Amino acid sequence: MRGESDFVAYAEARVARLRQRAYLLCHDWHLAQDLTQITLARLYASWRRITKVENIDAYAAKVMVRAFLDHKRRKSSGEIVTDSVPEQVDASTPDLRLTLLEALRQLAPRERAIVVLRYWEDHSVDAVAEMLDTTPGVVKTQSMRALSRLRTLLGTDMAALVD
Amino acid sequence: MGEQFRRLVDEELSAQQPPRLDGLVARAVGDGRRIRRGRALGVGSVAAAVVLVVTGGALLLAQPPPPHQSPSGVVTAGTDELPATPEALLELLTSLLPQGTVSGHAGRVDRDWIAARVYLNQNIVQISVARRLSPSPPFCVSAPPRSDPTLGSTPRPDASDLPPQLAAPGICDLRADGSYIQRFEEPDNCAERTGFDVHRPDGVSVRIVTGGCPTPGGPEEVPGEVGLPASTAVAIVSDSRWAPTMPADLVTAGVIHFPDLPDIPGATPG
Lengths: 163, 270
Description:
The complex is a heterodimer. By secondary structure, chain A is mostly helical. Chain A is built from eight helices and no strands. Chain A has helices at residues 4-26, 29-45, 47-50, 56-73, 100-105, 109-120, 125-131, 136-158. The radius of gyration of chain A is 17 Å and the shape is globular. Chain B has helices at residues 3-14, 24-40, 44-62, 86-96, 164-167, 230-237, 248-257, and strands spanning 81-83, 102-109, 113-120, 123-131, 172-174, 180-185, 194-199, 204-210, 245-247. Chain B has a seven-stranded antiparallel β-sheet with strand order 2-3-4-8-7-6-5. Chain B starts with a helix and ends in a 13-residue tail after the last helix. Chains A and B meet through helix 1, helix 2, helix 4 and helix 5 of A and helix 1, helix 2 and helix 3 of B.
């Protein structure tokens, strides 16, 4: 997979899934579209080198997550125009229980990224640590914290999902 | 934690209604080519920063006002325009300024506006581009001049070279292209002593500010010296290239020429 046509074939096959990951990270479809485009653009720019990488998908995940976290660090990133407002719900009230996506949205960006990479994409702790440029110990600690927060947000029934 | 979690997330994702993916891969290829070209010029990391800057905030300015956001209106790659950045504003601003000593480059991106600032001969010149929520221009009312030429030690810019309708601040002048231009003065605000607003029919407002604050670390004041003649300020603020999206060559050149641009402290869009 070295040429442009190979890249386009790869991108077309992955773009929907990439954008879903981006949405899980940022919870805004327009920003998700941007993150996906940025990720693919960077893959394209380094395609020859990347094709020597054993796992292109993991590399793409790393590029996207870092772009997302860079974005969140920018001052304006907290002012994204969205179609909906995150719900602040008392999880003890069953009728107002959060969906899983809404609960994910309430995690800190880095914790959200860890949950998405670890549990939605099934990457190993070591792989997530490499993607986030941190240590496996930090990933484990932040995973536990994120799961604990999810359990609280989701209430008793859905909390089993994150056990 | 595992399969059941993934399945429920996938179910909730499938219930979403994302925008269409039309052309996203093609736009990414276009962006990727630009990054490659930048690297070929030896500025790879800087060119990559163009993409980062694009996603960092300028994209918000580039989007049409909600709720009519274009699904892919964030990055206009594939055309010759990209979302404006402070670096691109600086690139254009410095090309339009008259000869002089230019220093103190800075920029800022906010949700609905973007700005760049330089010091020309130790006087602030700041340009900002904003997208109005309302199609009609704001602040377009007649008002008597309220400035006092004796206020402050920094002189007011000479307005004698302006048409009469712009000689007094607060009065809008409707121009042939449907835009309004208005002069303002803030005699008590050193950083934004005076300037001009252009409100265009496409919903974009452009402001140029000429101030009297001294360069940080420089002399206290430069009595008698004016940073920018009023007619030049009008010409600059009237340039049609000030927009939420700008020519790609300006965006790219801006990132190359102004890396690590510091933030404008306390900037407001005006």
